[in-house]
């Protein structure tokens, strides 16, 4: 060993990103992905434009703290429903991942969907994979400049529209549109349109697979939901190896020695994260099945059966299970538990939503006095009824109080509230002193109950407990 | 004002903060490359437990730049905003200043509404449903602690819904009360009235003025001793609103109408304070509030008031 050879070399712990030029994949899964793109984007871009009852159907009005979702108006007090919704979404993700791996990533994740749209634009302007590689390698020319400019402008337009649609969920879309025309938006609206547009442009245009590989937390913990019966995109090593180019002059004997993989590299070229699926399951694989489409296309051309790269499971690969056996293994304990929990939570969520009364009542006892004696032999407590009419229509509410024999309201028993409004109504509640003396209402605290019922709709009713204090 | 009792702590925080940030930078810079033996087949050269080696799978470089940008951001932030000991920052930002800005903004938002009412007559404001709703909410926020949510007061805190007023029930007087506050003071009168028996007699006389049951003999004795009270409460005990002296001839009692309570009042006197709200709320808000308080006992209600809309709270 010479001195020179022993000299240490410096390696870098951070490396520049290597550009990935995914080839366009065509096939069953690519079509499925495009269907997902259409569905998700029609919903995302279209939902703010729907109207309901003369207002925007879906609007999260943060300023007024009211979330409008079609016929439903959620108030901050309804935050539990959002929590339930997130839990449902999480369980759904667990369930889908346990069954079919990262299909969410490969087909419906916004990062995938926008990248798909951005790559489509890129292909239209810069051409297919080889043309793009050539374009990037050649020196700057007027044509290259024009193409690059056009691409970024097109990306920018899509990104801005995405940012606009995002903000349209929080600010009424029609006034947002007219205000944009007049450059009359508030600073926050500009900021969020710009921010969301920038995030879309950066993530779908520049970062792409880096988001999945380095930024996405889901990529990091999804392996905990995988098991040996989870569907994954796999390369059938036994059938494919040893790989090698097709040789037209090969004898049947030679052909037998060779596997089905002709090493055409198509599966690598279409991969949006730039991996080689033939090296086995890797955490970078987002399960998009582009390689399946590409390989099937090649197999069709060379007259071999499809499925050299396919959705399968670890167990199926090891034990040569049939598709039917794979299907049977879907209903395993883990999946059944996820499903049971999911059904339970969804049922609970649906029931709670259906039974939700758009009326809330808080009773606040006046702290200034414990309870006072009033002229005509009564003991009086004062309460503030904080009434929230969370329905969109106004109502007149009748207030009733019960719990002690002689208990009665000394103030008006009616409260009028507009739709979606809050009002504090002070009420005085009286109990006969003689009743108190008789023991019906003992000195100290007694339980009473307020009941609030809409005059025009008896089903709109809430009850709330309170305490009536009889002075000693 | 100094934030710390000694300059040492100021320096302590500055040194720790700056060193920590620079330390992060140095750590990042020193760890971004690594020296390995040549020909180490893509591993970092670290070996654990005899044969465990670490593959060099480099993170993207933009990630490293994000770290550097964070460090630059921290330094710029600490120059612009307070964060280094008691250094105030180039922008001069203060939380109290931000609070003042919000107050100014709130005044700009709601000021015109209150200004509109401020220019109107108090009785006209009282008849305005929107002003009534605003007044009600202000009352529940600022006045209900003492006077009760129903405005009927408590022991020692006047009932605002009756027609009995210590200083007068004209809207302008109510406004003056809220603006400037009041200091109600009844001096201890025990010595002036006389013996304990005298005090009891006077108490019974005072009860009789309101038509409450009282011992007739004590009443007749008490009447002669009531002279000590006339200066403020008047000959017939009708009170004097100029002094804030209560009318003793009605059935309204601030502390209670039993003989014992009245005797205690005579013996020890009473002191009551209504705070001034001028500084805190400003005149235009007090204007709306005064109109609401006046309406509690004067029923200015236009027909629509009974159905006053619950104005959506922000």
Automatic annotation (TrEMBL), chain A:
MF terms (GO), sorted A to Z: 4 iron, 4 sulfur cluster binding; metal ion binding
Database matches in SUPFAM superfamilies: 4Fe-4S ferredoxins
Any matching Pfam family: Fer4_18
Transmembrane segments: 32-50, 79-100, 153-170, 190-207, 335-355
UniProt cross-references to PROSITE patterns, sorted A to Z: 4FE4S_FER_1, 4FE4S_FER_2
4Fe-4S ferredoxin-type domain ranges (all copies): 252-280
GO cellular component, as recorded: plasma membrane
The entry's keywords: 4Fe-4S, Electron transport, Iron, Iron-sulfur, Membrane, Metal-binding, Transmembrane, Transmembrane helix, Transport
InterPro entries attached to this UniProt entry: 4Fe4S_Fe-S-bd (IPR017896), 4Fe4S_Fe_S_CS (IPR017900), Cyt_c_oxidase_cbb3_FixG (IPR014116), Electron_Trans/Redox (IPR051684), FixG_C (IPR032879), Ig-like_fold (IPR013783)
Designated name of the protein: Cytochrome c oxidase accessory protein CcoG
Gene behind the chain: ccoG
Automatic annotation (TrEMBL), chain B:
One of the protein's GO biological processes: oxidative phosphorylation
Cofactor, free-text remark: Binds 2 heme C groups per subunit.
PROSITE patterns recorded: CYTC
Cross-referenced Pfam families: Cytochrome_CBB3 (PF13442), FixP_N (PF14715)
Binding residues for heme c 1: 143, 146-147, 274
Transmembrane segment boundaries: 12-30, 62-84
Domain Cytochrome c: 130-210, 217-297
Record: residues binding heme c 2: 186, 229, 232-233
Domain of life: Bacteria
This protein's UniProt keywords: Cell inner membrane, Cell membrane, Electron transport, Heme, Hydrogen ion transport, Ion transport, Iron, Membrane, Metal-binding, Oxidoreductase, Repeat, Respiratory chain, Transmembrane, Transmembrane helix, Transport
Cofactor: heme c
Location in the cell: Cell inner membrane
GO molecular function terms attached to this record: electron transfer activity; heme binding; metal ion binding; oxidoreductase activity
Pathway: Energy metabolism; oxidative phosphorylation
Gene Ontology CC annotation, any one: plasma membrane
Subunit relationships: Component of the cbb3-type cytochrome c oxidase.
Main function: C-type cytochrome. Part of the cbb3-type cytochrome c oxidase complex.
UniProt family annotation: Belongs to the CcoP / FixP family.
The protein's name: Cbb3-type cytochrome c oxidase subunit
Species of provenance: Massilia violaceinigra
Organism lineage string: Bacteria, Pseudomonadati, Pseudomonadota, Betaproteobacteria, Burkholderiales
């Amino acid at each position: 060993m010479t001195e020179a050879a022993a000299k240490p070399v410096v390696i870098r712990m951070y490396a520049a990103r290597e550009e990935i030029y995914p080839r366009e994949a065509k096939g069953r899964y690519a079509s499925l992905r495009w269907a997902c793109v259409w569905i998700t984007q029609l919903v995302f871009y279209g939902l703010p434009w729907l109207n309901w009852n003369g207002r925007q159907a879906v609007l999260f009005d943060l300023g007024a703290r009211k979330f409008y979702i079609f016929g439903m108006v959620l108030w901050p007090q309804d935050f539990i429903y959002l929590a339930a919704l997130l839990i449902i979404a999480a369980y759904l993700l667990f369930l889908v991942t346990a069954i079919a791996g990262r299909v969410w990533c490969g087909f419906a994740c916004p990062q995938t969907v926008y990248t798909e749209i951005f790559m489509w634009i890129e292909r239209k302007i810069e051409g297919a994979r080889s043309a793009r590689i050539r374009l990037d390698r050649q020196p700057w020319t007027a044509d290259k400049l024009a193409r690059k400019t056009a691409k970024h402008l097109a990306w920018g337009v899509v990104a801005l529209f995405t940012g606009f649609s995002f903000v349209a969920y929080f600010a009424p879309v029609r006034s947002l549109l007219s205000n944009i025309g007049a450059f009359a938006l508030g600073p926050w609206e500009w900021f969020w349109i710009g921010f969301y547009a920038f995030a879309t442009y950066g993530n779908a245009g520049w970062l792409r697979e880096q988001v999945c590989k380095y930024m996405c937390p889901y990529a990091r913990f999804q392996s905990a939901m995988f098991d040996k019966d989870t569907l994954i995109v796999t390369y059938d090593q036994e059938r494919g190896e040893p790989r090698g180019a097709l040789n037209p002059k090969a004898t049947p004997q030679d052909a037998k020695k060779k596997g089905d993989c002709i090493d055409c590299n198509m599966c690598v070229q279409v991969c949006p994260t730039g991996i080689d699926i033939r090296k086995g399951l890797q955490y970078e694989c987002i399960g998009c099945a582009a390689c399946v489409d590409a390989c099937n296309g090649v197999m069709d051309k060379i007259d071999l059966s499809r499925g050299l790269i396919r959705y399968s499971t670890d167990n199926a690969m090891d034990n040569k299970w049939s598709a039917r056996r794979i299907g049977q293994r879907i209903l395993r304990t883990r999946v059944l538990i996820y499903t049971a929990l999911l059904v339970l939570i969804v049922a609970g969520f649906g029931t709670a939503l259906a039974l939700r009364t758009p009326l809330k009542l808080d009773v606040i006892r006046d702290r200034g006095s414990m309870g006072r004696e009033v002229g005509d032999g009564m003991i009086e407590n004062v309460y503030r009824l904080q009434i929230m009419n969370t329905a969109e229509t106004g109502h007149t509410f009748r207030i009733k109080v019960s719990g002690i024999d002689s208990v009665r309201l000394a103030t008006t028993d009616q409260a009028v509230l507009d739709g979606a409004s809050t009002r504090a109504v002070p009420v005085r509640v009286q109990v006969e002193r003689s009743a108190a003396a008789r023991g019906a209402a003992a000195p100290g605290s007694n339980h009473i109950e307020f009941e609030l019922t809409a005059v025009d709709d008896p089903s709109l009713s809430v009850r709330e407990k309170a305490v009536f204090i009889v002075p000693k | 004002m100094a934030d710390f009792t000694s300059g040492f702590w100021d320096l302590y925080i500055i040194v720790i903060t700056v060193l920590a940030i620079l330390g992060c930078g140095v750590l990042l810079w020193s760890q971004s490359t690594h020296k390995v033996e040549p020909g180490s087949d893509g591993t970092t050269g670290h070996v654990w437990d005899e044969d465990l080696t670490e593959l060099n799978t480099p993170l993207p470089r933009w990630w490293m730049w994000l770290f550097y940008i964070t460090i630059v951001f921290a330094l710029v932030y600490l120059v612009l905003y307070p964060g280094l000991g008691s250094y105030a920052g180039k922008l001069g930002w203060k939380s109290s200043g931000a609070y003042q800005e919000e107050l100014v903004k709130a005044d700009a938002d709601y000021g015109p509404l209150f200004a509109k009412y401020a220019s109107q007559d108090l009785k006209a404001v009282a008849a305005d449903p929107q002003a009534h709703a605003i007044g009600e909410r202000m009352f529940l926020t600022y006045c209900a602690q003492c006077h009760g949510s129903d405005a009927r007061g408590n022991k020692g805190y006047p009932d605002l819904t009756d027609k009995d007023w210590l200083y007068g029930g004209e809207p302008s007087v109510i406004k003056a009360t809220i603006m400037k506050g009041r200091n109600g003071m009844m001096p201890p009168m025990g010595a002036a009235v006389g013996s304990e028996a005298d005090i009891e007699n006077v108490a019974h006389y005072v009860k009789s003025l309101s038509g409450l049951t009282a011992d007739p003999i004590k009443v007749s004795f008490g009447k002669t001793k009531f002279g000590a009270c006339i200066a403020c409460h008047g000959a017939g005990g009708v009170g004097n609103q100029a002094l804030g002296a209560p009318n003793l001839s009605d059935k309204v009692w601030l502390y209670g109408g039993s003989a014992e309570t009245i005797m205690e009042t005579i013996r020890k006197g009473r002191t009551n304070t209504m705070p001034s709200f001028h500084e805190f709320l400003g005149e235009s808000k007090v204007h709306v509030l005064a109109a609401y308080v006046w309406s509690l006992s004067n029923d200015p209600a236009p027909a629509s008031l009974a159905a006053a809309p619950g104005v959506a709270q922000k």
